[in-house]
Amino acid sequence: PVYALPGSTSLSLWLCIAAILVGLLSGVAGQTLLRLTRIARERAAREEHQGRMVFATTAAFTVLGLVAIPAPDILGNGKALAQLAFDGSLGASAALALTLLKPVATAMCMRSGATGGILTPAFATGATLGLALGGFTHSSSDVRVALVLAGAAAVTASSQKAPITAILFAAELTTAYGEVGLGRGVAILLAVVAAV
């Protein structure tokens, strides 16, 4: 697995409710990420023909560098950010801030002409969203891990418009097949269904 997950999660009514809530929020987050990056790519294509890309790239990466001073986890494609969420290394407020900042940073870089996709940024955005909700509701650490995984799968499903792929992708990156467990498996399914 790419991401190591601690322990396991038991199925509970609270986990199901929280997973649905994460899914609903993830649906909005995934569609927002998709729209922002689509607009950014379209504008970057227009700028490229007008010869302004050097200035746009310089400005975007300067802003990103300044934002990274207080929030260094915003940098990169999102792999390290997702691991921080799975580890529970971020507080709820920091996770929420990064949930909002990561899609904006991704779109800003694409707007400047940088190339890349949204799969890993979507996964990371969902992971931080799940961690934020788990933190703000004072959920136990095992429930928080399940919500991080559910959020990652749900934002990925929403932004990629591929729910089955997102479920399998989340399982593949985090566990050996068959080791997801009932609690986490149900949380992923509920969140993805609510997101799409």
Molecular structure report:
This protein has 196 residues and is mostly helical. Helices cover 75% and strands 0% of the residues. It contains eight helices and no strands. The chain has helices at residues 13-50, 53-68, 79-87, 92-111, 119-136, 141-160, 163-174, 182-195. Helix 3 (79-87) packs antiparallel against helix 6 (141-160), helix 6 (141-160) packs across helix 7 (163-174) and helix 6 (141-160) packs parallel to helix 8 (182-195). The longest helix is centred in the N-terminal third of the chain and has 38 residues, at 13-50. The protein is elongated and about 55 Å long. The two termini are 26 Å apart.
What is shown here, in short?
75% of the residues lie in helices and 0% in strands.
Q: For the record, give the distance between the C-alpha atoms at the N and C termini, rounded to a whole number.
A: 26 Å
SSE succession: HHHHHHHH
Structural class: mainly alpha
Helix percent reads: over 70%
- Average pLDDT, rounded to a whole number, is 90
Work out the strand percent. under 5%
Query: Ranges with pLDDT <50 over ≥5 residues?
Result: none
Radius of gyration: 17 Å
> What is the count of helical runs?
8
Q: Kindly state the number of beta strands.
A: 0
SSE blueprint:
Layout: H1 13-50, H2 53-68, H3 79-87, H4 92-111, H5 119-136, H6 141-160, H7 163-174, H8 182-195
Helix pairs in contact: 1-4, 1-5, 1-6, 1-8, 2-4, 3-5, 3-6, 4-5, 5-6, 6-7, 6-8
Features:
196 residues; mainly alpha; elongated
